[in-house]
Amino acid sequence: MVMIRIRAGAPRGVRPGAVFLAVSTCTGLFLHARRAMLRELRQARAVAGAAQSVLLRPLPPRVADLDVAAAQLSADPGAAVGGDLYEVIPTEHGVRIVMGDVRGHGLAALGTAATVLGSFREAAHDEADLAGVLRRLDRALARHQRARDDAREAAAAEDFVTVLLAEIAADGTLLALNCGHPWPYRLGGGTATPVSRREPLPPLGLFPLPSRLPVAELGRLLPAETLLLHTDGVEDARDARGRFFPLGTVLAQTARAGPLSAQSVLRAVFTRLLGHTGHRRADDAAVLVVQRRP
After folding, report:
1. Interstrand relation of 216-220 and 185-188 (parallel, antiparallel or unpaired)
2. 113, 114, 133: which is closest to 122 by C-alpha?
3. Model confidence pLDDT, tens digit, residues 175-228
4. How do residues 129-140 score in pLDDT, each as one tens digit?
5. What is the C-alpha separation between 203 and 201, in angstroms, rounded?
């Protein structure tokens, strides 16, 4: 209760007890409204977390001849919701992988992430090559942008997604298409290096795709070699002094320490990442690790 002192010059007819009662009532109403808002916020976060778990469903520990491990951290400390997305699907064309990062994070990114993931889960089976898969994703995103624009929710021109598509054949042959996303790292033989350094295409949603799509041929993923895909929230994470997270160095140290497993690589990266940032993040961060079994 808030205590108010009534001065000697208070208006006639105003009783101190009435003032205390009014203040007490207002305080009670404020606390009740605050509790109601907190309940609604917790419920909204729970619903968003459930939607995220359905959208970004847990990956199986093994897909074809690949061991798989993945995790995502949201920049929003109050909800397990982010704009990063990933999926691994075995198809007749090989194991197909998508790693993406929707502009922004939190609840606003869920719809766009759902559009991209839903399109990939169908196109991965239907399309004979990665170029066809990417064009399907691009068309789905364009439809989503038009729908948002018509609903006046947000400027569709501001929606974009960085996307990396990868395909691993039965013999380990590795192909990739990159639209504005960080290239994966390959770990093996005590080393960790990016699979490519070529300039990627622009992110999806900013410009039309070119008539010819440059599918990168990245050699073979050998037995016991590991491929680590990540979003830019990993390498862009900063410590208290503003220094970026040294992902390449961490992976090289992990590769030299051996023996490697998909889970051990994932655990090493996130342990070092959380230690580097002090559990404070400005962007979502996702890591997907696949290792070809011996």
Report:
1. unpaired
2. 133
3. 999 999 999 999 999 999 999 999 999 999 999 999 999 999 999 999 999 999
4. 999 999 999 999
5. 7
Q: Is the pTM of this model over 0.90?
A: no
In total, how many domains does the chain have? 2
Secondary structure (DSSP) of 171-192: T-EEEEEEES-PPPEEEETTEE
In a shared domain, residues 107 and 173: yes
Look up the domain containing 51 and give its range: 14-55
Identify whether 71 is part of a domain. yes
| CA–CA dist 39, 170 (Å, integer) | 50
On whether both 31 and 92 belong to a single domain, the answer is no
- Single out the residue of 277, 179, 176, 248 nearest to residue 218, CA to CA: 176
Identify whether residues 49 and 144 lie together within a single domain.
no
40 and 129 inside one domain: no
pLDDT band at 48 (very low <50, low <70, confident <90, very high): very low
DSSP structure class, residue 201: B
**Alpha carbons 63 and 66: distance in angstroms, whole number:** 5
> What angle is formed at CA 83 by the lines to CA 78 and CA 88, rounded to 5 degrees?
120
